Amino acid sequence: MGAPLFASSLEPYHDRLTEAIDRVARSGRYILGPEVDAFEREFAAYLGVRHCVGVANGTDALTIALRALGVGPGDEVVMPSFTFYATAEAAIVMGAKPVFCDIDVETFCVTAETVRAALTPRTKAIVPVHLFGNVAPVPELRELGVPVLEDAAQAAGAELGGVKAGALGDAATFSFFPSKNLPCLGDGGAIATDDDGLAERARLLRFHGSRDKSTFTAVGYNSRLDEMQAAVLRVLLPELDGWNARRREVASAYERIGLGQGVALPREVSGAKHVYHLYVVRAERLPVGRGYYRVPVHRQPAIAADVDLPATEEAARTNYALPMGIDLTEDQVRAVCASGST
Ligand SMILES: *Cc1c(COP(=O)(O)O)cnc(C)c1O
């Protein structure tokens, strides 16, 4: 009776989610307790990394991870402009300077060539974005000799060469915002890394720069994943691979049915297993779908960076995200293709 408690795609998990929330509510532990500990262990094991540090959201995850990597005020961080604004914002708030590089318009991701063109002696980190659920070629980026922080906010469960996105770089960040592939019921984020020291610094920074809550050795943040969200994530993490398999089926249906002439379908980075956070095609004009990042980050009023990024401009102008999700049926895909055929 009454309206469903959760978004329709989470309805099948209603009882388990309610039980998890109730368990935390009754426990009296709401911040940095057993649920966060357990989720951090479970997500680290899922990714195949040594450490996961839960934080308040994906934007804080980027800021804290950059600082934990040793990036400081004035340092340059190379990143794409064709991304959600938060990627750049997270670097700017900690005093670093984003340097925008171009992308491969077919994959929407940076490449070793586009990143190399933006490197300077002041570059302290590279932040590739696994855009729309694709996976940027991190192994090639690591050969450039600068620490790599993966922005994996849109790519939970994606893989490159059999390695999970988030386990490819020196560190990685995730967002559990409700629309992401691994959602919670509010804001949430995490940092993943194999580096013991980096994980330790991230833990310190998420709690006001203190290890013991009485001595403060750094100026940090109040940025924790809370117990309720961690309990929710523990219910949903085991579903992630099944959901992503479903998204890949929807993507193959789009490919099979086809949108017609003049529409470029998304291309996986070589060796990548795309998880289609969004299914984004390119066309001069489509009557269906919506465009993402029509004004790329480098041209946003708060940024206004003077840089020439032709592939970014092309992607920004011509991309259309078609309906994608775990509930989408083949008939719905067919209907989208019919209305979108030019
Ligand atoms: C969602 C997103 C973020 C920010 O995550 P929040 O949890 O919303 O702070 C950062 N980068 C990318 C690419 C994203 O899609």
What do you see in this structure?
The chain has 342 residues and is an alpha/beta fold. The protein folds into 2 domains: 8-238, Aspartate Aminotransferase, domain 2, CATH 3.40.640.10; 240-340, Aspartate Aminotransferase, domain 1 (Alpha-Beta Complex), CATH 3.90.1150. Helices cover 34% and strands 13% of the residues. It is built from 11 helices and 12 strands. The longest helix has 18 residues, at 240-257. It is globular. Bound molecules: pyridoxal-5'-phosphate. Pyridoxal-5'-phosphate binds at residues 57-59, 83-84, 86-87, 129, 151, 153-154, 175, 177, 187, 189.
Which helices and strands, and how do they pair?
Blueprint: H1 14-27, H2 34-47, E1 51-55, H3 58-68, E2 76-80, H4 86-92, E3 97-101, H5 112-116, E4 123-126, H6 138-142, E5 149-151, E6 159-160, E7 163-164, E8 171-175, E9 189-193, H7 196-206, H8 227-236, H9 240-257, E10 272-273, E11 279-282, H10 310-318, E12 319-322, H11 330-340
Parallel strand pairs: 2-3, 2-4, 5-8
Antiparallel strand pairs: 1-9, 6-7, 6-10, 8-9, 11-12
Helix pairs in contact: 1-8, 2-8, 3-4, 3-7, 9-11
The structure holds pyridoxal-5'-phosphate.
Pyridoxal-5'-phosphate (PLP) binds next to helix 3 and helix 4.
Short description:
By secondary structure, the chain is α/β, with parallel strands linked by helices. The chain folds into two domains: 231 residues, 3-Layer(aba) Sandwich (Aspartate Aminotransferase, domain 2); 101 residues, Aspartate Aminotransferase, domain 1. It has eleven helices and twelve strands.
